[in-house]
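To illustrate the input format used throughout this study, we show a single complete record. The first block contains the structure-token representation of the backbone; no residue identities are included at this stage. The design step must infer an amino acid for every position from geometry alone.
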């Protein structure tokens, strides 16, 4: 297959300044709701890009678990690579790739840890298997085999039998991404895509909207 010949013609919609909300969080919620209504698989999946203290980037897909007036929330092992990088460089970028709708949203922001009570509340809502998996995985660390990982999981199954309360791991937590910039992208014919960008105004409270060339 010739990769150079792989291309799609976009034309499902348009994105004009008159069509978007003044607040990018409101606009994001609208697009997220539309992605859910369209039946997209895991519309809350987002690519999280981080960088270490030397500026070397890495990226992976995580799940958005809450959106409110503060920003975007996700949870992870705080001994993982992403957590180490956020500790050294508390800035990140998010990408929501809603290909089926010919849409993409990019977010840039600053990252802070969530307080323990919020983390505990969310962890308590997780399925039992996910809770056990959080305990069993030393995320980002090498493991000899799949069998060793399964044995680690089985040991926690024995520690917390069905019906018992599983506590939040001491090494597990949540992060809040407070957005400083957004870009909403809608595919258009001829690759003349619509790109509308929001950035904080000099006042620090309002958002300024601009159009970017594709």
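Output of the design step:
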């Amino acid at each position: 297959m010739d990769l150079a010949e792989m291309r799609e013609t976009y034309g499902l919609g348009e994105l004009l300044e008159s069509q978007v909300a003044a607040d990018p969080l409101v606009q994001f919620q609208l697009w997220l709701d539309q992605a859910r209504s369209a039946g997209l698989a895991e519309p809350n999946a987002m690519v999280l890009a981080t960088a270490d203290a030397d500026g070397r980037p890495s990226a992976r897909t995580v799940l958005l678990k809450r959106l409110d007036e503060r920003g975007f929330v996700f949870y992870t092992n705080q001994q993982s690579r992403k957590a180490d990088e956020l500790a050294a460089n508390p800035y990140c970028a998010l990408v929501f790739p809603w290909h089926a709708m010919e849409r993409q949203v990019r977010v840039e922001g600053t990252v802070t840890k969530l307080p323990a009570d919020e983390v505990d509340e969310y962890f308590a809502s997780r399925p039992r298997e996910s809770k056990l998996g959080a305990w069993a995985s030393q995320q980002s660390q090498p493991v000899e085999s799949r069998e060793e990982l399964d044995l680690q999981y089985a040991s926690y199954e024995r520690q917390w039998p069905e019906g018992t309360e599983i506590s939040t791991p001491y090494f597990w937590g949540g992060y809040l991404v407070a957005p400083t910039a957004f870009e909403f992208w809608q595919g258009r014919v001829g690759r003349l895509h619509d790109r509308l960008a929001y950035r904080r105004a000099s006042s620090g409270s309002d958002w300024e909207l601009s159009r970017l060339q594709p």
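Structural context for interpreting the output: The mean pLDDT is 95. Helices lie at 24-37, 81-88, 116-125, 128-136, 146-159.
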